[in-house]
């Protein structure tokens, strides 16, 4: 995960039914591969989140996940092999397993819950910001993570 990915999307979060604030965080694997997935403590290591190639750069894979504040460890499954990003902070876990990690800080202020607006794929975005669109898409994602799709 790049440090630049950590702040703009955190300005607004969404709140789970249990009252936990989740923030859209972009995860990036910049080291290529044919098939890349993401898993981590934020989804209790129970799901493999598919990552999409970045537009114009086939070596970069990305996904956005709704993540609560706190320290999270994660790994990438690249072409069937578990990998950590050596270019990002990482640490040894149990049994010598190395995981990439990041800390999502507690926000300065808890976002206000806005009434959910329904969008359908035929509507124009009507000037929605990137953060608003990502929050909407994350609210629709089955496991709280979505691959980033290149623009058509």
TrEMBL record:
| A GO molecular-function annotation | protein kinase binding
Q: Alphabetically, which GO biological process terms does the record hold?
A: signal transduction
AMP-activated protein kinase glycogen-binding domain segment(s)? 24-103
One cellular component GO annotation, for this chain's record? Answer: nucleotide-activated protein kinase complex
The membrane-spanning stretches of this chain are none
Q: Which domain of life is it from?
A: Eukaryota
Member of which family?
Answer: Belongs to the 5'-AMP-activated protein kinase beta subunit family.
User: What is the protein named?
Assistant: Sucrose nonfermenting 4-like protein-like protein
């Amino acid at each position: 995960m790049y440090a630049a990915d950590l702040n703009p999307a955190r300005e607004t979060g969404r709140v789970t039914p249990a009252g936990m604030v989740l923030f859209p965080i972009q995860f990036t694997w910049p080291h290529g591969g044919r098939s890349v997935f993401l898993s981590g403590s934020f989804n209790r290591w129970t799901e493999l989140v598919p990552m999409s190639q970045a537009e114009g750069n086939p070596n970069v894979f990305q996904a956005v996940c709704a993540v609560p504040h706190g320290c999270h460890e994660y790994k990438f499954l690249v072409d069937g092999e578990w990998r950590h990003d050596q270019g990002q902070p990482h640490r040894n876990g149990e049994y010598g397993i190395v995981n990439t990690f990041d800390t999502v800080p507690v926000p300065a202020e808890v976002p206000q819950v806005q009434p959910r607006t329904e969008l359908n794929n035929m509507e124009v975005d009507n000037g929605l910001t990137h953060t608003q669109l990502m929050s909407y898409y994350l609210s629709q994602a089955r496991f709280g993570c979505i691959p980033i799709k290149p623009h058509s």
